[in-house]
TrEMBL record:
Keywords: 4Fe-4S, Amino-acid biosynthesis, Branched-chain amino acid biosynthesis, Iron, Iron-sulfur, Leucine biosynthesis, Lyase, Metal-binding. Pathway: Amino-acid biosynthesis; L-leucine biosynthesis; L-leucine from 3-methyl-2-oxobutanoate: step 2/4. NCBIfam families: leuC, PRK05478.1, PRK12466.1. Heterodimer of LeuC and LeuD. The keyword Amino-acid biosynthesis applies. Its cofactor is [4Fe-4S] cluster. It catalyses: (2R,3S)-3-isopropylmalate = (2S)-2-isopropylmalate. GO terms for molecular function: 3-isopropylmalate dehydratase activity. The keyword 4Fe-4S applies. This is 3-isopropylmalate dehydratase. It comes from Mesosutterella faecium.
């Protein structure tokens, strides 16, 4: 009898090339993808050493972080440093024989974490690597996916492996049913509030339970995307029929006998009864309402009907200090509600919440309504593929008629590395994952929420409970 294993251990087992010492292994990566921002030094490292890319077909490169998202064709990157990053990536792909390059004007361009799954490249049981922290997103399909640093990117390119420090395992069981009006984003923010921004440090988190089962794949992606904000080194959800169907729809090359074999394997990808975890957290989804962040860390959020907590209510002195600082930066007071706080900007976008169902949810609320005077509202689809699908459904017309800007794909205002930058003091409801000081521009104020909450705030001109408009 072999000991029961959890899903993380099962994936590690099939990808361990060699054990290096007690806590470190050489890990094989099935697929690696790169953005123009974190990969250049890794490629130059290879050039300097005269080393090739071992397996050029196992990499995908996409320009997303610095690209302008204005709705113009062709897209031209005016900023010389950014233009250089994009052209360098293209040159590196040509030099090293990487065929999968999605540049600024490629019809499949998009945010790397949206493009990867859309292209059918992520499959259950894979090890998926990228030089970007939100790679945890792909755990939604049952892949062990995580972000790495630049030197590690070089190692992956050269060897298709990684020196990997083993993580602790954490099981978060989310029971109950998510109430009507609460989305995967609200669930993710509520879990993050409970676990805290450092609560999953060094852990690969596996999600299980009825509330997770009932999420769509896109909803699971939102949840896994935000898991890194708890310090996690990975997020995992065991693949079920929904995940199978999703992968089959997107992975055009997987058909016939090969698909049958893959399915047989995917069905083994669940934790054995009695498997060990280093930590366990229980969570009930049934009390969750639409959430919004009040501070400058993604775990500082409240339900829309709740009051902002008193910093003194946090037992941990670091959390208390962070709360004071967050409130000061955001210009908010403890005890007040977020409902009614005036806003000047709304951003619907990012690898957290810019897939088709996110845009559909926002558009459903915006139909027949208009953005409030004084509010600038932008929607940036997660990929050009998502944009095309949304246009085929007429969503662009709804957004435009409501006074939203309908834009091209990229990270955009999620981190303000392109020309979308907020002015100091501008308050924004954003469907993204980070509300750090200055994240959307120096002195700007970010409040994380769901696409429905963002759309409702645009219409009301202030943070509001979208359920009242549904
Ligand atoms: C630029 C990149 C290194 C960064 C990340 O790793 O997540 C970015 O995508 C972000 O969301 O802050
Ligand atoms: S959309 Fe935002 S969170 Fe996602 S990869 Fe881009 S910058 Fe990072």
């Amino acid at each position: 009898m072999t000991a029961p294993k959890n899903l993380y251990e099962k994936i590690l087992e099939t990808h361990t090339v060699k054990r290096l010492d007690e806590g470190t292994i050489l890990l094989y990566a099935d697929i690696h993808f790169a953005n123009e921002y974190t990969s250049p030094q890794a490629f130059s490292g290879l050039v300097q050493r005269g080393a090739p890319v071992l397996s050029p077909d196992s990499h995908l490169c996409v320009v997303d972080h610095i690209i302008p998202t204005a709705d113009v064709t062709p897209r031209v990157i005016a900023d010389p440093a950014s233009a250089k990053q994009a052209s360098t990536m293209q040159e590196n792909c040509l030099r090293f024989g990487i065929k999968a390059f999605y540049g600024p004007n490629d019809p499949e361009q998009g945010i790397e974490h949206v493009v990867m799954d859309e292209q059918g490249l992520v499959r259950p049981g894979m090890v998926v690597i990228c030089g970007d922290s939100h790679t945890t997103t792909h755990g939604a399909l049952g892949a062990l996916a995580f972000g790495i640093g630049t030197t590690e990117i070089e190692h992956i390119l050269a060897t298709q492996t990684l020196v990997y420090r083993l993580a602790r395992s954490m099981l978060i069981t989310i029971s109950g049913r998510l109430p009507a009006g609460a989305s995967a984003k609200d669930l993710a923010l509520a879990v993050l509030r409970k676990v805290s921004a450092r609560g999953a440090l060094g852990c690969v988190v596996e999600y299980a339970g009825s509330a997770v089962d009932s999420l769509s794949i896109e909803g699971r992606m939102t949840l896994c995307n935000l898991t890194v904000e708890a310090g996690a080194r990975g997020a995992l959800i065991a693949p079920d029929e929904k995940a199978e169907a999703w992968v089959e729809e997107h992975a055009a090359d997987l058909r016939g006998e090969e698909l049958e074999r893959a399915r047989g394997y995917w069905r083994t990808l669940r934790s054995d009864p009695g498997a060990h975890y280093d930590a366990r957290v229980e969570f009930d989804a049934s009390g969750i309402e639409p959430m919004v962040t009040w501070g400058t860390s993604p775990d500082q959020s409240v339900g829309i009907s709740e009051a902002i907590p008193e910093p003194d209510s946090f037992p941990d002195p670091i959390a208390r200090e962070a709360a004071c600082r967050g409130l000061r930066y955001q210009g908010l007071q403890p005890g007040m509600k977020m409902e009614g706080v005036p806003i000047q900007h709304v951003f619907i976008g990012s690898c957290t919440n810019a897939r088709l169902p996110d845009l559909q949810a926002a558009a459903a609320l915006l139909k027949g309504r208009h953005v409030a005077p004084g509010v600038r509202a932008q929607v940036v689809p997660g990929s050009m593929g998502v944009r095309r699908e949304a246009e085929a459904m007429g969503l662009d017309r709804i957004f435009r008629a409501a006074g939203f800007e309908w834009r091209k794909s990229g990270c955009s205002l999620c981190l303000a590395m392109n020309d979308d930058v907020l002015q100091p003091g501008v308050r924004c409801v954003s469907t993204t994952n980070r509300n750090f000081e200055g994240r959307q521009g120096a002195g700007s104020r970010t409040h994380l929420a769901s696409p429905q909450m963002a759309a409702a705030a645009a219409v009301a001109g202030c943070i509001t409970d979208w359920r009242k408009m549904a």
